[in-house]
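Section 5: illustrative case.
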């Protein structure tokens, strides 16, 4: 973190190759060894800088223990499931502290949300500060580049203010060491984001190479920012700009590599990685693109999604047969287990998971309110009982359970799984199946991933209509997504923020940033004072001790509600963890300024009044309140 606040220096090597080497726009031709005075002279040079933003955004999802895991386990849908470790995020009040190690190998990368955020802000600010150093062919060319830089910066700040609250607002390129940062109010940061995104929405190209930012991505983000500012009419308008742009549409017919396979359906088609970048897939707004042939910085990281979110079903001795024998192996077909070859290759079908993102029972079971929901039906949705006992020794010994479906209990009611937290849960196979055929124990592959998808835009507009007291319109948008999955539509009187969040969970698992969106909604409820479906009203005066984020997590996630015991910890959460702690390293390195700490954490008592952004010419000003 000290490198962010002590050594944010003049950027001399800013040209990075981005997510997919097959895309021309991701292969800029650098000029004169990337010297800034030679690079930032035309659109190609500036696009090269913005590719660094695209690359770093991708880091949230790819590799092992991606930061994205934190967005799930600080929510209603999931918990940390790796029960064999200490230091993991289970007992939140005990381990979520400002001086904790939040970049700890296979335990957590929560801290990347701070460090990577300010890297991306740095890259975007170089473009913004130098935008008029170039000779532009047209104003449209200039403003497209500037608009994309504004998008990247606003996208980062939208996440930061819902993860950490008030944070330093940096609006220009920093060319020398700087130690005097100050926190700026969440509200005014969002106002600056809105101003920039309004500009970007006018100028960013509607059509862009796959993987790059387009006008729809700008308006999608702008919808979230507008709702954060309680500008619900504006949120409806920005969502309309995506939904009605003539380019994007919900996919409603079979397409892609499986379209003629009657054993699968549209939901499966939509989430197969080879289908996401197809031109016929009009639902894609912004895609992280990846290829096994990529050799650029960070590109060797696979989307190790099955490792993160599939149960540890093949762990030695984890799942027993009713006869008391080890029942499953995650070794591939032909591998020797106990000297005998594996004949039933389940790891090739489902991947090798370690249960890091363990879905809550509510997400697995209670959430699903329609038996015809394709997202919750086999083979899209996998239940542990769909797997079979496949240890080859069972067959050799004549065990009657070989190749029979798994069961959790024996005839006497005894549990046949030694770790039901980590090794026994259901999962959305259609989303998580991204395979690497060269990996004998596959845990993910070089797959494309949706960062923004039109189904979420519909659900965002449904939410904006709900806040705007237009439940009929909200129902229509929610049902557009819901009925596509085969569900019966909701009636108008069923629409509330709870049913909207429920549909988001069904549709956007391992896509939406769940903690961020719950926190955003918690702020809206506190600022508007609107009654919630739980019968409560909230206010900003008690936000740290009484907020919707906490109530929703406790309501839906039994692990936190009942303080479920794991080998080393009880699962616990607290209301103040609605915001994460600002890293002590950032605060301590900032010796000439003052970065505030969030309520509930050590250091909060030393806070000062945060700064505020005010509109004005150019970038506006950051002033004292």
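Designed sequence:
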């Amino acid at each position: 973190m000290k490198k962010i606040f002590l050594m944010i220096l003049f950027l001399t090597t800013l040209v990075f190759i981005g997510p997919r080497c097959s895309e021309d726009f991701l292969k800029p031709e650098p000029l004169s060894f990337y010297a800034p005075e030679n690079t930032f002279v035309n659109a190609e040079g500036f696009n090269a800088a913005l590719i660094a933003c695209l690359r770093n955004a991708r880091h949230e999802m790819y590799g092992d223990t991606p930061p994205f895991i934190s967005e799930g386990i600080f929510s209603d849908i999931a918990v940390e499931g790796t029960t064999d470790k200490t230091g993991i995020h289970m007992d939140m009040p005990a381990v979520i502290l400002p001086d904790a190690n939040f970049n700890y190998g296979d335990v957590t990368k929560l801290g990347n949300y701070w460090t990577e955020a300010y890297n991306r802000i740095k890259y975007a600010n170089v473009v913004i500060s130098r935008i008029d150093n170039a000779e532009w062919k047209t104003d449209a060319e200039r403003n497209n580049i500037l608009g994309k830089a504004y998008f990247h910066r606003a996208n980062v700040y939208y996440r930061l203010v819902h993860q950490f609250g008030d944070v330093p607002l940096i609006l220009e390129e920093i060319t020398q060491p700087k130690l005097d940062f100050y926190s700026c109010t969440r509200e005014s940061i969002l106002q600056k984001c809105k101003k920039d995104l309004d500009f970007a929405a006018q100028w960013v190209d509607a059509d862009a190479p796959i993987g790059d930012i387009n006008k729809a991505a700008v308006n999608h983000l702008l919808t979230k920012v507008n709702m954060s500012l309680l500008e619900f009419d504006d949120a409806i308008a920005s969502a309309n700009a995506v939904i009605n742009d003539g380019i994007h549409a919900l996919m409603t017919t079979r397409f892609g590599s499986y379209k003629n396979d009657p054993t699968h359906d549209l939901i499966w088609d939509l989430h197969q990685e080879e289908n996401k970048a197809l031109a016929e897939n009009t639902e894609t707004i912004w895609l992280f693109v990846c290829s096994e042939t990529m050799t650029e910085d960070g590109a060797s990281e696979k989307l190790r999604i099955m490792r993160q979110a599939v149960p540890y079903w093949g762990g030695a001795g984890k799942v027993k047969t009713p006869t008391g024998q080890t029942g499953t192996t995650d070794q591939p077909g032909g591998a020797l287990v106990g000297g005998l070859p594996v004949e039933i290759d389940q790891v090739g079908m489902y991947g090798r998971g370690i249960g890091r993102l363990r879905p809550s029972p509510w997400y697995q079971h209670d959430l699903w309110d329609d038996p015809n929901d394709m997202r919750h039906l086999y083979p899209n949705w996998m239940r542990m009982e769909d797997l079979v006992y496949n240890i080859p020794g069972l067959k050799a010994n004549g065990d009657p359970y070989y190749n029979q479906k798994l069961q959790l209990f024996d005839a006497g009611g005894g549990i046949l799984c030694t770790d039901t937290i980590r090794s026994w849960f259901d999962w959305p196979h259609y989303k998580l199946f991204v395979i690497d055929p060269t990996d004998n124990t596959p845990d993910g592959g070089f797959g494309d991933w949706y960062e923004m998808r039109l189904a979420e835009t519909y659900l965002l507009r449904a939410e904006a209509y709900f806040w705007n007291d237009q439940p009929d319109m909200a129902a229509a948008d929610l049902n557009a997504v819901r009925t596509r999955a085969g569900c019966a539509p909701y009636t108008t009187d069923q629409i509330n923020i709870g049913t909207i969040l429920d549909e988001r969970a069904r549709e956007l698992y391992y896509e939406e940033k769940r903690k961020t969106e719950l926190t955003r909604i918690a702020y809206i409820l506190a600022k508007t004072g609107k009654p919630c479906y739980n019968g409560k009203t909230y206010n900003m005066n008690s936000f740290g001790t009484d907020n919707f984020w906490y109530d929703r997590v406790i309501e839906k996630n039994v692990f936190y509600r009942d303080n479920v015991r794991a080998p080393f910890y009880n699962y616990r959460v607290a209301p103040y963890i609605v915001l994460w702690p600002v890293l002590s390293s950032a605060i301590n390195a900032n010796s000439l300024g003052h970065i505030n700490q969030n309520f509930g954490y050590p250091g909060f008592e030393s806070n000062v009044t945060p700064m505020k952004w005010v509109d004005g010419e150019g970038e506006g000003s950051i002033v004292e309140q």
